[in-house]
Amino acid sequence: MAGQFRVTEDQLAKLSGDIDTANGQIQGEIRRLNGVIEQIAGGWEGQAAKSYHQLQERWNQDAKKMSDILQDIKEAVDSTRSNYTASEEQQNSEISKIMSDFG
Predict the structure, then answer these.
(1) Per-residue pLDDT tens for 10-49?
(2) In Å, how far are 13, 34, 77, 82 from 16, measured between CA atoms?
(3) DSSP state of 4
(4) Residue 6 half-sphere exposure, CB side, CA atoms within 13 Å?
(5) Which residues lie in Polar residues bias regions (predicted)?
(6) Helix (H, G, I), strand (E, B) or coil at 12
(7) What Rg do the C-alpha atoms of the chain give, in angstroms?
(8) Domain boundaries in the chain?
(9) How far apart are CA 4 and CA 75, in angstroms?
């Protein structure tokens, strides 16, 4: 059938781990950058500083949204993996039952 793809349980597990790793690396880099920014802009005052800090806060909120989206994707992959495993087990059980019925 057109539009279908195949995936294994191991591939789903790897994808979940890769998403988790990438999200952790992104969050670590954001923390590092925020630390550098605080050192540089710590003593900055005035309207330009206020505008910059508002922009930085908005950027941090967007970065948090991105992290949340990656976490949602990871959870969806984990759910798919769980459903895949349950389906495989059910199908294996049904095939075993059919085979035992035919003895």
Answers:
(1) 999 999 999 999 999 999 999 999 999 889 888 889 999 9
(2) 5, 27, 6, 12
(3) -
(4) 1
(5) 80-95
(6) helix
(7) 24
(8) 64-103
(9) 22
What amino acid is encoded at 35 in this protein?
G
- Six token digits for residue 87: 């389906």
* Residue type for position 83: N
pLDDT tens for residues 43-66? 889 999 999 889 999 999 999 999
CA distance 15 to 11: 6
Q: Using alpha carbons only, what angle is made at residue 85 by residues 16 and 72, rounded to the nearest 5 degrees?
A: 30
Burial status of residue 46 (CB atoms within 10 A of its CB: 0-12, 13-18, 19 or more): exposed
Q: Is residue 70 a contact partner of residue 19, using CB atoms and an 8 Å limit?
A: yes
38/1 Cα distance (integer angstroms)? 55
Contact 103, 63 (CB under 8 A): no
